[in-house]
Specification:
The chain contains 19 helices and 10 strands. By secondary structure, the chain is α+β, with helices and mostly antiparallel strands. The structure holds fe (ii) ion (2 copies).
């Protein structure tokens, strides 16, 4: 977590709230009304503070507000205002408002007139074009308005989000390649470790910036080269959980490397066993059970610096052990699992159960998986950590395909509140006409604050992606 609060973190909500209040008061009262003056004063104080060094861009993307390049963190108390403003922006087709530094010296009556224009624009059929016309006057030169991005265009690499998205995508596939290289000794062991370490740092950064996107990417599953995407997904999920429970950045980097390397030993297990459709024979199981130990041997041979090596061996060794030390490999010298081992185990099982395998063509849905895992809390998983994991993922984790109350299909894209997954942001998937599904609108599934004008929606059930023939990852990768 960041040690120092940034400007958006400190004043972002106050700024949004002040703008909201100003718009709402000018809607009802004349400029000389006391409430209007008060809301204007508050707004200008914040504007003064925030635009002191740079322009302020208030940017709406994928249902979240950003100020500058920073996502506005979720604060429960501010949820009503944030949702109301999302609704306000969306209905008018506004993507961003930029208050230039010169806005600090704008005349009070012009600021109020601007608020009124924003509000009134809804009366026009094309609010944004109407606003464009109105704001051409010189007295509004301190503010700029931009049209809402189509969600598909957001990956053009131009915006801060586009860049982050591209970086996330590249990091993901780079990580897959690195695991493959290390596992098959395609690169010099030293190079492989260095790469993995750098990747781990990037993964930690990306998770800090946009946890939702990184959880979304874990829906990428490669059927043929499963072990590699599995390893990257485990690294991402484990690191997200580590961050959720407040581990330090250094520990998170180690955890990410553990995730990437945890199944290196699988390369030593024959493909016939790994890809076997039916149940394994006793002999095959014995082979399979060797992979954590083979993996540890491989890590030892990696030529990693001593300080790193000791930190990335234990968890991969432990990732098939239960809290009571049953499981495999059987060990007599250990009495309890390390924290990282317990985290890795949870991420590993969740990832495996949600993946399509030869022996399980229809994987469990994420919500089903969590329920299943919860039944094994205490025996297979550390209860406290599993509870945190479920809280972090939400009932319908990001990437879940769901059926909505109105019978439509949706994909869970985000939760506005990272620490209390309550109201998912769902992308409606609509029929292209040929049975194929494409992006529809983004809707909030809200228990408490349904966006005004929209019907209250709920999630009826999770659907296996195969049932509706979609690959959730494609929607996070913007392929669809
Ligand atoms: Fe494993
Ligand atoms: Fe694994």
């Amino acid at each position: 977590m960041s040690d120092k609060q940034s400007i958006p973190e400190r004043f972002g909500h106050d700024f949004l709230r002040a703008l909201y209040h100003m718009i709402n008061t000018v809607r009802i009262y004349q400029d000389n009304n006391q409430l209007v003056r008060k809301s204007l004063r508050t707004f200008r104080t914040l504007l003064d503070l925030m635009a002191a060094e740079d322009d302020i861009s208030l940017f709406l993307w994928r249902g979240r507000f950003y100020i500058g390049e920073q996502k506005l963190p979720y604060v429960r108390d501010a949820a009503t205002v944030v949702n109301a403003m999302i609704d306000f922006f969306s209905k008018r087709g506004i993507g961003s408002i930029i208050f230039l530094q010169s806005s600090r010296t704008a005349l009070p009556e012009d600021v109020l007139a601007f608020s009124r224009l924003l509000d009134d624009s809804i009366k026009d059929g094309d609010p944004l074009s109407w606003l464009d016309q109105q704001l051409r006057e010189e007295k509004y030169s301190w503010v700029q308005l931009f049209r809402k991005h189509d969600d598909d265009e957001a990956s053009d690499g131009e915006s801060a989000d586009g860049k982050r998205y591209e970086k996330a995508r590249q990091t993901y596939f780079h990580a897959v390649e690195t695991v493959k290289e290390v596992a098959n000794k395609l690169s010099q062991s030293m190079v492989g470790v260095r790469k993995a370490r750098r990747l781990a740092q990037t993964i930690v950064d990306l998770i800090r910036e946009d946890t939702s996107l990184m959880i979304g990417l874990t829906t990428i599953k490669d059927f043929d080269d499963y072990t590699y995407t599995h390893s990257v997904n485990v690294a991402l999920l484990a690191t997200c959980l580590g961050r959720y429970i407040g581990l330090s950045d250094v520990s998170l980097e180690h955890l990410a490397v553990c995730g990437l390397f945890h199944d290196l030993g699988k390369v030593g297990v024959s493909k016939d066993i790994l890809l076997k459709e039916g149940a394994l024979t006793d002999g095959e199981w014995e082979q399979m059970k060797k992979h954590p130990l083979i993996g540890v041997r491989k890590i030892l041979m990696l030529n990693a610096p001593q300080s790193l090596r000791s930190r990335i061996i234990i968890a991969p060794f432990e990732h098939h052990l239960n809290p009571d030390m049953t499981g495999y490999p059987r060990t007599l010298f250990m009495v309890r699992l390390s924290l990282m081992g317990k985290i890795l185990r949870i991420a590993d099982v969740y990832e495996a159960l949600t993946a399509e395998r030869v022996y399980r063509p229809m994987p469990f849905t994420p919500d089903e998986t969590l329920r299943k895992m919860w039944l094994a809390a205490g025996t297979n998983f550390d209860t406290v950590l599993l509870k945190s994991f479920i809280k972090m993922m939400g009932i319908y984790p990001i990437g879940s395909v769901v059926e909505l109350g109105d019978g439509s299909i949706g994909l869970v894209m985000d939760y506005p509140n990272e620490f209390e997954r309550g109201m998912p942001l769902v992308l409606r998937l609509v029929d292209k006409g040929n049975g194929d599904l494409k992006r529809g609108e983004l809707v909030y599934i809200s228990d408490e604050i349904p966006a005004s004008g929209s019907d209250r929606l709920n999630i009826v059930r999770g659907i296996p992606p195969g049932e509706v023939h979609i690959n959730p990852a494609e929607f996070f990768l913007h392929v669809k």
